[in-house]
Amino acid sequence: MRMKLVAGNWTMHGEIEQNRELLNMIVSGTTGMERATCAVCVPYPYLSQAQSLLKNTHISWGAQNISQHDKGAYTGEVSAIMLNDFCCRYVIVGHSERRTLYSEDSRTVALKFKAALDAGLVPILCVGETLNQREAGFTEQVVGEQLDAVIGLVGVDALASSVLAYEPIWAIGTGKTATPQQAQGVHVFIRNRVASHNVRIAAELRIIYGGSVKASNAAELFAMLDIDGGLIGGASLIADEFISIFLAAQN
Ligand code: 13P
After folding, report:
1. What is the pLDDT of residues 52-99, one digit of tens each?
2. Is residue 123 within 8 Å of 162, Cβ to Cβ?
3. Is the whole-model pTM more than 0.90?
């Protein structure tokens, strides 16, 4: 039985005072909800704040990106090892905004995935297609290649300590959610692809969905057999929305 994960991706949002209010509301609003896992992935400058407000709570925290390198002359970069200083549990790798806006190719994403694992973090690997790719019938090819790049570098066993996030690019921040059936279809494709290497790891792998998840559509998405939670952007910045989404993951 896979425990659902609801992870907030704040993207480049946050302010010390607002964060405090948001995090405190999330902690109190989700207390007692123990049938799913909750996490927030915050901008680097707020990791220390997240750590101090969330330690000894049921909510984990993490970052949204890491360098593929451990240390060195890489101005502006942050290593996975550094995240350990803030007791992070998760780090997002390969978010489509990183792939498109910062030209991260699948090889770089795979190296970042490995760096996260080597540091003992749980990588949340994002995969997903553009609208053009979907309409041209290339969804499985694109997602399959993104996944294969990681399996090729670290081996399928490494997926046992990771989370996959299917995030169709056309659904991110657009208000246009994939239908539960569309998302389920890709999740099954991903699980089958992993199963072709290792059936047990595929069965245990959490595959979460991201792309305009809201309180109003979370329950129907999470009801699908292969949707094991959500990676939540905009709605993770609104306490009531995020709490309701987490509540929908309890069933
Ligand atoms: P939205 O929930 O704002 O569509 O963002 C999804 C996302 O990209 C989370 O990583």
Report:
1. 999 999 999 999 999 999 999 999 999 999 999 999 999 999 999 999
2. yes
3. yes
Is any atom of ligand 1 closer than 6 Å to the C-beta of 237?
no
| 196: CATH | 3.20.20.70
The string of pLDDT tens digits covering residues 158-215 is: 999 999 999 999 999 888 888 999 999 999 999 999 999 999 999 999 999 999 999 9
In a domain, 174, yes or no: yes
Q: How far is the CA of 234 from the centre of ligand 1 (A)?
A: 6
Residue 96 CA: nearest ligand 1 atom is 8
Identify whether 1 is part of a domain.
no
**Residues 168, 178 contacting (CB under 8 angstroms):** yes
The whole domain housing 44 covers: 6-248
Is residue 126 domain-resident? yes
Three-point CA angle 235, 84, 34, nearest 5°: 45
**What is the whole-number distance in angstroms between the Cα of residue 173 and the centre of ligand 1?**
6
CB 173 within 8 A of CB 233: yes
- Return the exposure string of 22-31: e unless at least 16 CB atoms fall within 10 Å of the residue's CB, then b: bbeebbebbe
Domain total of the chain: 1
